[in-house]
User: Which sequence fits this backbone?
């Protein structure tokens, strides 16, 4: 049997008591799903990073075929596919769930880069090692 290159999947009859991921859960291939619960069950989830689908027409999260899963605090991002697909499955907890795709992904990446720069500057100041950093411009050419 040939299976797609999914980062995580639970098939019919499968049960995962707790899924813990310390960083991002990522796929890069075309037409794949990063996190899929297809007929199985996930009881608890803790993903510290994002669920990312970078490939063409790839989806970040799929819950289908009577599968059940919480998506507590999941940040699902798909570059060109769908960030969330629910097709005959059930999401048992949507608390903190967020999703975006395409243009929103690029804007989010820019936002994260700006925040990371601000955090680095603040950390240097707190450590007493403040050094001038080059100006950063956002996509509109404004200094941040």
Assistant:
């Amino acid at each position: 049997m040939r299976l797609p290159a999914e980062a995580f999947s639970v098939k019919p009859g499968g049960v995962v008591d707790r899924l813990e991921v310390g960083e991002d859960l990522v796929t890069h291939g075309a037409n794949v799903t990063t996190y899929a619960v297809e007929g199985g069950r996930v009881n608890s989830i803790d993903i510290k990073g994002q669920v990312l689908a970078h490939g063409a027409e790839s989806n970040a999260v799929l819950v289908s075929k009577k599968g059940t899963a919480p998506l507590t605090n999941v940040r699902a991002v798909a570059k060109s596919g769908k960030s969330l697909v629910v097709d005959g499955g059930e999401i048992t907890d949507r608390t903190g769930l967020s999703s975006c795709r395409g243009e929103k992904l690029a804007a989010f990446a820019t936002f994260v880069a700006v925040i990371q720069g601000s955090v680095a500057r603040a950390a240097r100041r707190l450590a007493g090692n403040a050094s001038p950093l080059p100006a950063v411009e956002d996509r509109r050419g404004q200094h941040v």
